[in-house]
Amino acid sequence: MRIAVFGASGRIGTRLIEAILARPDLQLAAAHVSSTSAWLGRSVAGTIVEYRPAEATINAHCDAIIDFSTPEASLQLQEIVGNRSVPIVIGTTGFSDAQLATLGAAAKLRPVMIGANFALGFGAFATSTCRFAAMHPSALVTIDETYHQRKKRVVSGTSLQLARGIRAAQSKGAADAAPEPDIRIHRLADTVGINQVRFDLGVAKASFTFTVDTLAAYAEGALNAALWLATEASGPGLYSPSDMWS
């Protein structure tokens, strides 16, 4: 399977390329960077592939695209792909409602999966917290996120996703909506990612913790998503990582 990486010079993009080159069942179709990138024209890890801007014929060279760029660049990618049906996995976060609507329109033409966290095991972690929340609808919930100190001190897409899922689980079947979980932000050294969900039951407490040791976890998860989207998704549409486990 041939995979193109969009945002190839980024923190996750570089790990994606390493992971693709290490797997005999995958081929690196393209390594896309911006037209002003200092990486332009360089060979990718000694291969014949060079870092290049994305072009209109992108799907002629690949079976799937993995996008870890920026919201603006991600929308530009959809324009470049046009009406082609190549599947696209998007690990970019921070989209506005209008931008999400644009991606939804693009998903009518091809399979598009958007996820806040593609790390291996995160799906099972999120599912477990929601199941526990459903069984304890009155519990007070606190979500702690810890990432590297260079990351902006704003709530991550991962924490927002956890909060939405937990609140929905606690509110199901209740007369009133459950309160929003309290989200606490921590930035520490070179921490890759620690997500903790704590439940205060009044007379007891429970906590779920998910720790990412290396950026490779995000890359491997995104590759699994690309394989699923290209081989098992039921045609064009907007997908989330949870669809892989349903």
Record keyword descriptors for this entry.
246 residues; 6 helices; alpha/beta; Dihydrodipicolinate Reductase, domain 2; seven-stranded parallel beta sheet; 2 domains
How would you sum up this structure, described in words?
The protein contains 6 helices and 11 strands. With 246 residues, it is α/β, with parallel strands linked by helices. The protein folds into 2 domains: 2-118 and 216-244, NAD(P)-binding Rossmann-like Domain (Rossmann fold); 122-212, 2-Layer Sandwich (Dihydrodipicolinate Reductase, domain 2). Helix 1 packs across helix 6 and helix 2 (71-81) runs parallel beside helix 3. The longest helix is centred in the C-terminal third of the chain and has 16 residues, at 216-231. It is globular and about 60 Å long. The relative contact order is 0.16. The mean pLDDT is 95.
Element layout with pairings:
Layout lengths: L1 E5 L4 H12 L4 E6 L18 E2 L11 E4 L3 H11 L6 E3 L6 H10 L4 E4 L7 H14 L4 E8 L9 H15 L10 E6 L5 E8 L4 E8 L3 H16 L5 E3 L7
Helix content: 25-40%
Number of helices: 6
Whole-Å distance between the termini?
24 Å
Global shape: globular
Number of strands: 11
In terms of quaternary structure, what is this? single chain
Largest sheet: 7 strands, parallel
In short:
This protein has helices spanning 11-22, 71-81, 97-106, 122-135, 157-171, 216-231; strands at residues 2-6, 27-32, 51-52, 64-67, 88-90, 111-114, 140-147, 182-187, 193-200, 205-212, 237-239.
